[in-house]
Amino acid sequence: MAAAEKALWFIESHYSEDLSLGRIAEVAGVSPFYLARLFQAMTGCSVVRYLRARRMTEAARRLAAGAPDILEVALGSGYGSHEAFTRAFGEQFGLSPASVRERGSVGGLALVEAWRTANGAGVTLDEPRRARDGTRLIAGLGRRYTPDTTQGIPAQWQRLSLDHAAALPKRRTAFGVFCNSDDEGSFEYIAGVEVPGFGGLDPALSTLRLPAREYVVATHHGHVSGIRRTWQAFVGDWLPRSGLRLADAPDFEKYSADFDDRSGIGDVEIWLPLQA
After folding, report:
1. Contact 67, 61 (CB under 8 A)
2. What is the pTM of this model?
3. Alpha-carbon Rg of the chain, whole angstroms?
4. Where do runs of H (alpha helix) occur along 44-179?
5. d(Cα 3, Cα 237) in Å, to the nearest integer?
6. How buried is residue 193: exposed, middle or buried, by Cβ count under 10 Å (0-12/13-18/19+)?
7. What is the pLDDT of residues 102-129, one digit of tens each?
8. Mean pLDDT of 15-42
9. Do strands 268-273 and 251-255 pair parallel, antiparallel, or not at all (unpaired)?
10. Are 85 and 70 in contact (CB under 8 A)?
């Protein structure tokens, strides 16, 4: 059973307990950082957000069925108080637990059902390779995303081209770097290029130093809009079977010299950092 499947099983069978990313990762047999990246690639949602959404969904069903004690539902959903549960429930559905119980229905609520893992359907993944990369200096536009807002990334590249192209090297390799993630699945994405140094750059640009290290690399072919399926096949299928362990460090997409940013067609390499 793959790590994501173990994590999903554990969440579904233990969501009423006091779960943390670390505990779920331990059951899945991987590091918390590895599980966070794997789970996000497989489901498009962070572990913590998925756990919270599943708890609230099952709690809503219990309340709509007439559960007499809201505190008991709260405790059975992993919350230690009525107040904390009510706040989380309201954030999830925009309604109070009492109102759902009173109306006796979950109709209209944005319920989150148990997720089943996918296998990157339609993607034939070239055999990934291990490679050592030297130190790289990246400069570009940085922005924080959640798994639900990544549709803003293409516009980020466009803003880089429109507003900052003149200040960046003309002959350059483009990198999309994922860094500074948290347990909620939020991360910083830097749409940038490799630069010789950071001196004299526009202060509005984000900068990042990628130290020399070893990576495992997979290649996405075709239109860039389908790159998530390559991520799924690479991180969700191939990587768990490889026995390799990821380092808690930035990973990135490297755009090939023949990548056409107007059509979106061309090869993109996915570089994942390995533990030393």
Report:
1. no
2. 0.71
3. 21
4. 47-64, 70-75, 82-93, 97-103, 153-164
5. 10
6. buried
7. 999 999 999 988 886 554 456 789 999 9
8. 87
9. antiparallel
10. yes
